[in-house]
Write a structure and sequence with these properties.
Number of strands: 11
Order of helices and strands: EEHEEEHEHHEEEHEHEH
Structural class: alpha+beta
Strand order of the largest sheet: 6-7-8-9-10-5-11
């Protein structure tokens, strides 16, 4: 399959036309309208420093059903002991910046390059992007962020400065999304970490079908708050 070069027009080629490695298009911009359209079509931006803006739709697609998260015995113990205080949407910019820093400090590439953080911050200001924070006292020690459309949450990145902090943040998110009757969390590509917590690969075609149904449901915008584990 060819890689499509995007113009200024607010349009994407169908996701199923992506290359075998998931790459679909190059170019465009990171406006809120384009980002939302991309997610609505099962597409997301992912590129490193020195690369053009790249858009992806991999097959298979890793997803996590909020009700089916796997809570290990040790993680459950951590939750019951309230080792972390969980909040939502309290410091989105700090969380996304920490996600980028956690990779660069390890000498790894990050997709949170120039332009990405402001782009997602704008989505947060629109009530579309959300963060989950894990605290020990007054110190932010872990968290995650992503985009919410319809009843699908598109997980983007997480960070952990203390063992289990990002896992508890993810468990809290699943608890919150279950209460809101969300359908799924899009994890994008497979990782052993997410698989250990219950995420599974499904065909892209099935993901697109599930996403389309989910997008017809009323979105949950505005500032989110965490009311505790149930």
């Amino acid at each position: 399959m060819p890689v499509f070069r995007l113009s200024e027009a607010l349009v994407f080629p169908p996701a199923h036309l992506a290359r075998r490695d998931g790459l679909l298009g190059v170019g465009g911009d990171l406006s809120s309208q384009r980002l939302i359209l991309a997610y609505q079509n099962g597409i997301f931006p992912w590129f490193s420093h020195g690369e053009p803006l790249l858009w992806w739709s991999p097959d298979p697609r890793m997803v996590l059903y909020p009700r089916k998260i796997n809570i290990s015995r040790s993680l459950g113990k951590c939750i019951r002991k309230s080792q972390f205080t969980i909040t939502m949407d309290q410091c989105f910019n700090t969380v996304i910046t920490a996600c980028a820093r956690s990779r660069t400090e390890k000498g790894e590439d990050t997709w949170l390059v120039d332009g990405m953080i402001p782009a997602y911050t704008r989505l947060h200001e629109k009530g579309v992007a959300h963060s989950v924070e894990a605290w020990q006292g007054k110190e932010l020690v872990g968290g995650l962020y992503g985009v919410s459309l319809g009843r699908t949450f598109f997980g983007e990145s997480m960070f952990s400065l203390v063992s289990n902090s990002s896992k508890v943040a993810l468990a809290a998110l699943c608890n919150h999304l279950t209460a809101l009757e969300f359908d799924l969390i899009d994890c994008q590509v497979a990782t052993t970490h997410l698989a250990s917590m219950g995420a599974v690969d499904i065909p892209r075609s099935l993901f697109i079908q599930k996403l389309a149904r989910s997008l017809h449901k009323e979105p949950v915008k505005g500032t989110w708050s965490f009311n505790g584990f149930f």
